[in-house]
Amino acid sequence: xxxxxxxxxxxxxxxxxxxxxxxxxxxxxxxxxxxxxxxxxxxxxxxxxxxxxxxxxxxxxxxxxxxxxxxxxxxxxxxxxxxxxxxxxxxxxxxxxxxxxxxxxxxxxxxxxxxxxxxxxxxxxxxxxxxxxxxxxxxxxxxxxxxxxxxxxxxxxxxxxxxxxxxxxxxxxxxxxxxxxxxxxxxxxxxxxxxxxxxxxxxxxxxxxxxxxxxxxxxxxxxxxxxxxxxxxxxxxxxxxxxxxxxxxxxxxxxxxxxxxxxxxxxxxxxxxxxxxxxxxxxxxxxxxxxxxxxxxxxxxxxxxxxxxxxxxxxxxxxxxxxxxxxxx
Length: 329
Ligand code: UT7
Description:
Blueprint: E1 5-14, E2 19-21, H1 22-26, H2 33-40, E3 44-46, H3 55-70, E4 79-83, H4 94-102, E5 108-112, H5 118-131, E6 138-145, H6 155-158, E7 163-173, E8 178-186, E9 194-196, H7 207-211, E10 217-219, H8 221-242, E11 252-255, H9 260-270, H10 281-284, H11 291-299, E12 308-315, E13 319-326
Parallel strand pairs: 4-5, 4-6, 11-12
Antiparallel strand pairs: 1-7, 2-3, 6-7, 8-13, 9-10, 12-13
Helix pairs in contact: 3-4, 8-9
């Protein structure tokens, strides 16, 4: 009998309707469409404007769509993991709220905070429960409402980020398809270059932190850029090498969508053709934990059973990694 692997058996995304275009941003900060497009590859991003809605609502929409598509009933779900840095509240976690909102009465959930690598970390975590035969139906969501922590007077960050959610269903498979390997890395020293300065236990919210605009995402973009290229390239190389493949054996690379120049640079370093790299940054910008599942959702129709796919990401922490899977349907 074949070994059990956790396989993605469905994917669904959800993005808000409201578009924030480069032209819109021109009216908000000192920037222009030409700079944003040439330096980042982004034309527009989606922004959640539905009154009263937050990250869990985007997750719930993605999960409800996923259940409908896969024919799974809410009561059949065992566990939901949500990767996010913009949970509804500091506590409780967003995943349990999502279980409640989708009617997953027999499930429990928890959040994973690994910033832009969150989906990768959550997917590899969820896979363990399926592979070990603890659970049969695990949902992994990557979702962020970045607009809730973006300073729309800061042109270094506001042109990049957007809102969205993507969800996958993990189920056991014995046919050799599924999640086969992953390399996850971290370097806490990177916290200096990408973080939110206040709002946590180190610096709780005060009138001063608000006045200093410290409740927004902050990054040293240029330095993060260099680490991102290095981190994604090296973990992709490692996972390809240790699975005795070459890049010719890989049908798709799914990179975190932070900057088109990072994506191009990683592909160049790997000598991997850009036509087989999933890219949707132009339409959504950087949706943090949602970029990878949103890419899979966008490209789902082009995927074939048995395709070798490498997911890779880099984000705050620093956190980074690459995951190898064989597409299961
Ligand atoms: O997803 C998590 C990980 N995050 C990342 O991977 C982000 C990585 N970093 C980046 O994507 C890029 O560094 C940015 C898009 C954030 C910035 O692009 P850059 O090419 O590194 O720009 P820069 O910060 O070096 O700035 C170059 C110039 C500067 O002007 P001077 O000093 O050369 O006159 C900036 O002031 O571009 C200026 N600039 C802008 N101009 C127009 C910076 N932001 C903007 C802007 N519009 N939005």
